[in-house]
Amino acid sequence: MTRHHPDSLSLMEYSAGNLTEPHALCIRLHLDQCAHCRSRVDTLNSLGAVMMAEQPKVSVSDTSFEQLMSRIDSAPEPVSPIAEAPRMSPLQKLLGDDINDLPWKRQLGDVSVLDITEKFPGQGERVVLQKLVAGGKAPAHTHRGTETTIVLQGAFSDQKGVFNQWDFVVLNEEDEHKPVAVGCEDCITLSVLSAPLKLTGTFTRLLNPFIR
């Protein structure tokens, strides 16, 4: 069960088609597994269609956004649909392989990465898959910009709690953490970075000039 979700503004931007392709992919992967957020986006899509169909201009107050999201949040949980035949996820379509069999490159300690930025030509952000071996620890770090992450497999924990499969998290320069893979399988995440991360460990910080 997903416990960490995209915020209301991100869902609204996704519904409006205003997100970059990598960020939209992260939310799409979350929506495929989260009925709660999927219901909220369906509501936003319906409201957007109604607003587009209306000809007269409608005045919008400063509190309209909060009132709208409050109505969406208070809506009843959707009934689980009848199970459908398995279908290929957007990530599988993009990579064409099982994520465990990809050509991972060892980075630091227990962390391996695969840069897939080239699959999103024209984007100004770096898009990477990261694998943390079961029970392994990532180096302590913060961020020079924004990092949007979705957990694709396994789980990790940090100072903010435990993030399980399909959980969604956004971090920035105010966040410093040292993820630890929990459970018995490798933790694999997909991250979109607006700027390189910044290592904060006593010795690993010496590597910062070499991180892009």
UniProtKB/TrEMBL annotation:
Entry-linked InterPro entries: Anti-sigma_ChrR (IPR012807), Anti_sigma_zinc_sf (IPR041916), ChrR-like_cupin_dom (IPR025979), RmlC-like_jellyroll (IPR014710), RmlC_Cupin_sf (IPR011051)
Domain ChrR-like cupin: 98-190
UniProt cross-references to Pfam families, sorted A to Z: Cupin_7
Protein name, UniProt field: Anti-sigma factor
Organism expressing this protein natively: Marinobacter vinifirmus
